[in-house]
Design goal:
The chain has 432 residues and is mostly helical. The chain contains 15 helices and 11 strands. It has a 3-stranded antiparallel beta sheet. Strands 1-2 form a two-stranded antiparallel ribbon. It has a two-stranded antiparallel ribbon with strand order 3-4. A hairpin with a 6-residue loop joins strand 10 and strand 11. It binds alpha-D-glucopyranose.
């Protein structure tokens, strides 16, 4: 564990701002210096959330910059490349070849995959917390049609199981890249070997796994990012509870934002109901929500932090909330960890306290779970999660993730999401 002097709230806040300023590149904030030199999708939504209370304009620019990469299909790509650094990350634009696709935005190279649809929630957070109400309302009006197109894409092209849920077609789309939930579907892909430059932080998957990830991305690319191919042939299609829980929450807040754009909130509430029904019918099993592999029909045997995603839904039935909170508090997750919330259940054979998404705690998922618990009035746990998360960054800095037992930092340093959400936690801790 790195020895650091005790950091008070003011110093922590200053530290967070200096990370966000150092990682600023035009309108975007890159996730971390060196390792992630482009604009990442859900990272930018977390950055906008963190900026919401202080800098409406910058938060808005972050979201608008990301959505400049939106495809004409409505898909919001998981990476928007900064032209000056095109090949500074693998897989870069020459791998994705987005510009060869007529649906991609003119001139902006992007990846061909998406990430969790936190965008409407981020827009709502900015609108809810902005000091400058007019600027925030104008931002909502600009973002609204883009958010509607994104949700329509998920409801049509991505409802691969026909049950109202969106399927991810690559583990990178989950934001939880190396989670053990993907081991079975990825293990079923052909073994391949590529010679390419690797930029993964230590603690990532073995090379053979990464090769399969690349193979999967290339297969989708070689289909021309085709919707029919996804339905009929693509070998990876998974309904993930966190992705869909986030989408549901985004539908609900989109209904609140709709009147600002002179639109009808009804369709967004109906979409939320469809997703809730899908989650309950298709992913609830044995006291938690589990990812469903659409190619085998199997539910994931391993529980991860993603299982709690549907708690973001205020309409989730109380008995399910109780069960989930019980699991979260138990030694399977928070009960046996020194710091919230391990990304994988501690008793699972795949649990590894240091490996990326296979054990370490993240500020991002802690923030989402804290919001979910607040939605269900679990103030005790909200406070515990907020304090535990602040303890992590105070002790180890704005790291990408943390050992859930001793709190030591893992992955990249100066991680924008961890810095941005710390600003939000510091502000919010005041009244709780
Ligand atoms: C890794 C993380 C993902 C994040 C990206 C950029 O791929 O797993 O959640 O969006 O890095 O920070």
């Amino acid at each position: 564990m790195e020895a650091r002097p005790a950091v008070d709230d003011a110093a922590l806040g200053r530290g967070a701002w200096s990370v966000l300023d150092a990682n600023r590149a035009g309108s975007a904030t890159v996730p971390a210096p060196g390792l992630y030199p482009h604009q990442w999708n859900w990272d930018s939504t977390f950055v906008a959330i963190g900026l919401a209370r202080w800098d409406t304009r910058r938060a808005g620019a972050e979201l608008l910059g990301l959505l400049a990469g939106q495809w004409r299909t409505g898909m919001v790509p998981h990476i928007v490349f900064r032209p000056a650094r095109t090949e500074a990350y693998f897989p870069g634009p020459s791998v994705w070849r987005s510009r060869e696709n007529p649906a991609s935005p003119n001139g902006t190279p992007t990846s061909g995959l998406t990430q969790p649809p936190l965008h409407a929630l981020a827009a709502w957070w900015v609108w809810r917390h902005a000091a400058d109400r007019e600027e925030a309302a104008a931002l909502v009006r600009r973002l609204y049609p883009m958010l509607v197109a994104q949700h329509a894409y998920l409801a049509t092209t991505r409802d691969l199981g026909g049950g109202g849920l969106a399927a991810i077609v690559h583990p990178w789309e989950s934001g939880m890249d190396d989670s053990p939930v993907w081991d079975a579907p990825v293990g079923a892909l052909p073994a391949v070997r590529y010679a390419y430059r690797r930029e993964e932080p230590p603690g990532c998957h073995s090379d053979s796994h990464q090769d399969r990830y690349v193979w999967l991305a290339l297969r989708y690319r070689d289909s021309g990012y085709d919707a029919a191919y996804l339905r009929e042939d693509h070998p990876f299609a998974v309904e993930d509870p966190m992705f869909n829980g986030i989408w549901l929450a985004s539908c609900q807040v989109l209904a609140e934002l709709a009147p600002l754009a002179g639109a009808d909130p009804g369709p967004h509430l109906e979409a939320a109901e469809r997703i809730r029904a899908g989650l309950l019918e298709r992913l609830w099993s044995d006291g938690v929500f589990r990812a469903r592999d659409l190619r085998t029909g199997r539910l994931s045997p391993v529980s991860t932090v993603g299982c709690f995603g549907p708690m973001l839904d205020p309409g989730l039935p109380a008995d399910r909330v109780e069960k989930l909170v019980g699991v979260l508090e138990s030694p399977r997750f928070m009960g046996a960890a020194g710091y919230p919330v391990p990304s994988c259940e501690i008793r699972a054979p795949q649990f590894d306290r240091s490996r990326y998404w296979r054990g370490p705690s993240w500020v991002t998922t802690n923030w989402l779970l804290r919001l979910a618990l607040a939605v269900h009035g679990r103030t005790d746990l909200v406070r515990l999660l907020g304090a535990g998360t602040l303890r992590l960054v105070r002790q180890a800095g704005f790291r990408e993730c943390f050992d859930p037992f001793d709190g030591s930092g893992r992955g990249s340093g100066d991680f924008s999401c961890s810095a941005a959400l710390t600003l939000d936690l510091l502000a919010d801790n005041v009244g709780i």
